[in-house]
Write the structure tokens for this entry.
Amino acid sequence: MPYFVQRNPKVFFTSLVILLVGTILLSLNVGKFPISPLQLGQAIRCVFETECQTPSSVETVLWYIRTPRILVACLVGAALAAAGATYQGMFKNPLVSPDILGVSSGAGLGASLAIFYNLPMFYVQLFAFTGGILAVLCVSMVGSRSRNQDPILVLVLSGIAIGSLLGAGISLLKILADPFTQLPSITFWLLGSFTAVGVKELSQLAPILIFGILPLFLLRWRLNLLALEEDEAKSLGIPIQRTRYILIIFTTLCTASAVSITGIIGWVGLLVPHIARLLVGANFILLLPTSLLLGASFLLLTDTLARTVASIELPIGILTSACGAPFFLYLLLRGRK
């Protein structure tokens, strides 16, 4: 497959775009309030024709509920997948995910604090974003103080330690929280959901995620050089430490902003880059855009299942784990063979 992609990249990426568009159209149609393809086509036509009219219920569901949610799901999926691929290349470890430096744990503690003190949703999102950023800052400070040690190993171990400490804080807040009001809210937020996403959240999140994803896309060729031995990369004129910290800044921005709006969503940043690597190989020139498109399609499809597969809407973190863990085990067993 990687050979085919290298020979026919336009065909391959066109197929991924078609897959994403098809997933978007499916997500627009299905739900508790089903919209037929005919109604969808009429609603899209009415955007461009002034004399055309769409039923108000269809217009509200389509443009004010589903479309913002779909766009946020695509952006979050793309951001988490790009962050995961970047971390895996930067740390030279395919088992690394976007929360390796504690950003998800920091965001979870920040959101749990806001919910514990009964703050409005805006502050829940603000505390989550701030908590994620501060967690990575702490990890980076520990990593920068290491002397005569492998900086990658120090960063990973610091992330594990600080993430564990923040996880303990979340557990403490769960014990202290009101079991009838605060605890269910904390638990539901930690499982991840797009339930609260609307036009306002889309307008807040989209510029930040695009600002975070774009530099990763432009710097993807440097990830190929970071995969080399450190001496080789330095001989090619790459400032290793500065490049790593630049990439950490933008991956953290992507992950923290995504988690602050949707809650913690696991497996996307770990699983999707693996699938992309099977399709295109380890060349980040192709791997990163493939991860972006696959991440958007995967998370959107998962969210569509979350709101249609049961009578109540399931937290998306449950479905990403249910889909991701078995497939990841399959990849591991396939790799051993």
Remarks:
- The mean pLDDT is 89.
- Residues 56-90 form the longest helix (35 residues).
